[in-house]
Amino acid sequence: MADMTTKLPVGGASTPIIEPGHTYGSVTNKITSIVLSGRTPRLWYVGIGIGFSLVMLLLVALTNLLFTGTGIWGLNVPVGWGFAIINFVWWVGIGHAGTLISAILLLLKQDWRTSINRFAEAMTLFAVACAGIFPLIHVGRPWLAYWLFPYPNTMGVWPQFRSPLVWDVFAVSTYATVSALFWYVGLIPDFATLRDRSKTRGKRMIYGILAMGWRGSAIHWYRYETAYLLLAGLAAPLVISVHTVVSFDFAVSLVPGWHATVFPPYFVAGAIYSGFAMVVTLAVPLRALYKLEDFITAQHLDNMAKIILATGMIVVYGYFMEAFMGWYSGSQYESYMILNRMTGPYAPQYWLLLFCNAVVPQLLWSGKIRRNALVLFLISLVVNVGMWLERYVIVVTSLHRDYLPSSWGMYSGTIWDWSLYFGSIGLFISLLFLFVRFLPMISIFEMRTLLPTSGKPGK
Amino acid sequence: MMAEFENADAVLEASKKTYAAGYRRIDAFSPFPVHGLAEAVGYRKRILPWIVLAGGVVGGLAGFFLQYWVSVIELPLNVGGRPLNSWPSFIPVTFECTILGAALSAVLGMLALNGLPRPNHPVFNVPRFERATTNRFFLLIESRDAQFDLAGTRTFLESLEPSEVMDVEK
After folding, report:
1. Between A327 and A291, residue with greater pLDDT
2. Which of B133, B139, B164, B168 to mutate to test the interface with A (most CBs of A within 10 A)?
3. DSSP-derived secondary structure letter, A13
4. Counted domains in chain A
């Protein structure tokens, strides 16, 4: 059994997913010490400093928005949907990788998911939190956003359940709830580990409350595993449904370029694609910062890059289908829309998006590049930009040329649009840095199960 | 009374022997799920999946009939000539409510069956027990067990070759 963790040559078919020589104790020490030792790398302060400054920007932009109204955005009459929906779809899409890694890869028994699932789930939660800001503020009077939920009220009105926008409320709020449950349940045994290893009373109390008295009983573990597996089984169709419903926001309308049956699968693939890119964007620096190369090995980078490549190709198929249907539908508006997208005023954004999402990821066919952390990191940044541009192109090019030339217009984000967008990135960064500081970013108990069970125990 | 073991196979083996020796009020503790350990300490009732199923069914029905009640009874609106009970457009929300009901009952059901949150438990009185969440495995025989006898049970546990046997104070 000990052979399982023998180090094979890098680049071989089966590079280990944990470097050899680790025991239950050493895995635990390594991961808990990040949280408990109190030695925070200097770069952490730099990171949270950047994130926190951007949160301040977010607060300024939100305050101005609440006082002045959505008039500070670049929206106008043909383009009534702008950054709010673009950012919402971008963030929700990023959120998808977390659940995909934790649920679908768990069901498929992909052991390598263990080192990345915890922070991918955290990333999901934070991305959904960022996504949630935008629909909330785009309603114009966010203090009345609870009108979206069905509750008995003196006005005698109810949500319109035939509308995809109401479906979205249910899909996203369910998704946020289930992701939070999944994440928390996964954390319970690790909270117990932190409780038992904390040196100070304060930490022991806080982690103890969070662990809810977990003591690792065999019967508890059994029910725990059943619950976790069932949650994974529930989260897997949920994650697919969420981006499907998001795509319905577009596809159920009659706007040229949106009214397409390819939208649900194309959106889901795009979500996984952008989500994995974000996981790589986060994993590479974290791994370097906290010296986690033993747990997040080249094999992980390689696997994630392969998923990025595969889902990227599905997305490219979606782009191809959009263009094809523009021509094949024979609809004057559809064909004009796609022609305008390729050659009109937003052509630079369109071709840049194709460069980011269709051309650059082709580098990932090379195994050397997949295993090169730095290059992979840069590619993941390009993909993140590409996926944002994709939503921008979809939203803006379809709307800015209305059916009658008299109602054509142009759209661009104002400084407030950009402030909110970068501010939400800041919120995401800040939450993530707080997470890696205070919670175990790798699932400790699952890492223990990856070690050969008959391996020698010890300190 | 509690015995400490150094690896998963040892505690699994010891649990089986303890159960075979007639002890029934026993439990094992491990830092990660060990397959077969729950069965070895005599765990048979598996009702959690049924709770989750019930939660999902209730969630789904509640979701659908909420929409039915709103759209047909409380606020009937003609939208594009669709029937009031235009059920295909109620499917997404029904689906989401099913998942929500099932997921909530999975987590709450698991915690309730496990009797958590329970911040205090006699096993925590054993100082060495804090390693149960790191790298040690424990087997517990409760004093409530019909066969329990302070000296006899200690001898029995020692025969299982643990690294240590400890008394657990209430």
Report:
1. A327
2. B133
3. T
4. 1
